[in-house]
Amino acid sequence: MKWEIVIGLETHAQLSTKSKIFSGASTAFGAAPNTQACAVDIALPGVLPVLNRAAVEKAVRFGLAVGAKINQRSIFARKNYFYPDLPKGYQISQYEMPIVQGGTIGIFTEDKEKTIRLTRAHLEEDAGKSLHEGFHDFTGIDLNRAGTPLLEIVSEPDMRSAEEAVAYARTLHALVRWIEICDGNMQEGSFRCDANVSVRPAGSEKLGTRREIKNLNSFRFLQQAIEFEARWQIETLESGGRIEQATVLFDSDTGETRAMRTKEDAHDYRYFPDPDLLPLEVSESWIGKIKMKMPELPEVKREHYQKGYGLSAYDSAALTADRATAEYFETLVAEVPSDPKLCANWVMGEIAAYLNKMGKLFDDCPVSAKQLGLLLKRIKDGTISNKIAKDVFDLMCEKVGMFYAVSKAVHQLQRDPRYGDDLADRIIEEKGLKQISDIGELERICSEVLAANPSQVADYRSGKEKAFNSLVGQAMKLTRGKANPQQLTEILKRKLTG
User: Fold this and answer.
1) Nearest residue to 326 (alpha-carbon basis) of 352, 298, 291, 346
2) Cα dihedral angle (217, 358, 363, 169), rounded to 10 degrees?
3) Which residues contact 119 (CB under 8 A, 6 or more apart)?
């Protein structure tokens, strides 16, 4: 039997506010345990929550970005459950009337483009954290995170593979960073996903029983967890077993999921409106003011890149994978407006490869777009070849250092004339890397190569095309890669056929 995987994601994006959603306590990461938990966060008797205006604005920004309905009136509810790291015995969340309803996220996989529908996005507070490592026979509780503002983003079960789920999560991660509502730091728990996974016979419209994989904080773990869970469910059903609704955890060491508890339904949480919080009212004028401050969105830029620069849909999607990449690319194109494709190739190629190797983001790129722009100009005007340009780029990275965008000392370094926008020219001059384009010199080199390789000349003239590549290689070696490849090729062919 053929099976179809059905996946929906629930994503918790920690909103990048300075204080918590219902108190004035700091949300800064890394403080000593329980030093950022005030009376409201630890639920002392008599305290009252006060809603953080900035958290509401960030939720509205998200709703506008995904084309959702912004509910002008929404309700906060108490979600009742009992964990040691939940001091009140309930979590303040939104249930029947969330602030954001609907919306879509467009994703790109290698072979297609797809739209994923969103069910809702609602505001809620985070719980504290249970600490197990370093304790013997007991558990520590850190309430610093209690009350941190979250936007829970719930998708429809529209994904049909782990690849699509990862593409959705990556796109959503890029979007919340793009519109500056979440820093997206997965290591610190700022962006984490729960995956609802079920399987059903191919062609069936009825959904299977789902199991929810909790707290996946990397795209690699998300993919591994879904792939294992789907295989496990299929094997269970094919062997005559049945799937029970459950919450499961993913063990990254074994690559397996394991059941944690029977999955709760909404009625298990006994939701009811929070009597301490008035309904949230968001006026049209407030929404309008937020909309005016929104940045240009990725899909708008993608369309511009395709129509204005003639780039493919794939290239445009890659260049808008995050805001820093798009801004770098646009600055680069402003420097080299005659060749957007060359700019795109370098951003997606050499720059991306270097940053990936160093484990850095575009914000930390050691070579500025203006510096790279001059390097590309030197390719265009024939000063250096594309191959030599890659060597110059490596030297530029080495000279400026990989902490280009984060270290104050490096910012000072940027102002040093030795590391300014003309860095590429300085390196080309210092290393003697200018391309040989003098026709007379190239004529001499080609004659020398042909005289030194009579057997390869004979092979080429007898119809063996590979011999020509060998002769070009010999000439490039003789010039240490500095010969103009196009001119060299033309001269060699003329001499061989003349």
Assistant:
1) 298
2) -30
3) 101, 102, 154, 155, 156
Query: Number of helices (H) and strands (E), helices first, in the chain?
Result: 17, 17
Contacts of 476 (CB under 8 A, 6+ apart): 483, 485, 488
Q: In the beta sheet, which residues pair with residue 192?
A: 12
Q: Which of 244-253, 356-365, 447-456, 484-493 has the lowest mean pLDDT?
A: 484-493
User: Over the chain, what is the mean pLDDT?
Assistant: 89
Block residue for tokens 């957007």: 340
What distance in Å separates the CA atoms of residue 173 and residue 446, rounded to the nearest whole number? Answer: 54
pLDDT tens sequence across 233-258: 999 999 999 999 999 999 999 999 98
Torsion of CA 435, 439, 444, 446, to 10 degrees: 70
Specify the pLDDT at position 412: 53
Token digits of residue 146: 């209690």
List Cβ neighbours of 379 (8 Å cut-off, separation of 6 or more). 342, 385, 386, 389
HSE-CB at 48 with a 13 A cutoff on CA atoms is 5
Query: What is the 3-class SS of 169-238, one letter each residue?
Result: HHHHHHHHHHCCCCCCCCCCCCEEEEEEEEEEECCCCCCCCCEEEEEECCHHHHHHHHHHHHHHHHHHHH
Phi-psi region of 432 (alpha: psi -120 to 50; beta: other; left: phi over 0): left
Decide if 456 contacts 434 (C-beta within 8 A): no
Q: Is 454 helix (H, G, I), strand (E, B) or coil?
A: helix
pLDDT tens-place string over residues 389-434: 999 999 998 887 644 444 444 455 555 556 678 889 989 888 877 7
Q: Tell me the C-alpha distance between 331 and 325, whole Å.
A: 10
Any long-range contacts for 104-112 (C-beta under 8 Å, 24+ apart)? 104/66, 104/67, 105/66, 105/155, 105/168, 105/171, 105/172, 105/175, 106/171, 106/299, 107/164, 107/167, 107/168, 107/171, 108/167, 108/171, 108/313, 108/314, 108/317, 109/163, 109/164, 109/167, 110/163
Under a CB-based contact definition with an 8 Å cutoff, are residues 289 and 53 in contact? no
DSSP state of 417: G
Helix (H) or strand (E) holding 256: strand 256-262
List residues bridging with 433 in a β-sheet.
none
The β-bridge partners of 154 are 10, 120
DSSP state of 348: I
3-state secondary structure of 63: helix
**What is the DSSP-derived secondary structure letter of residue 62?**
H
Cα–Cα distance for residue pair 328/354, rounded to 1 Å: 15
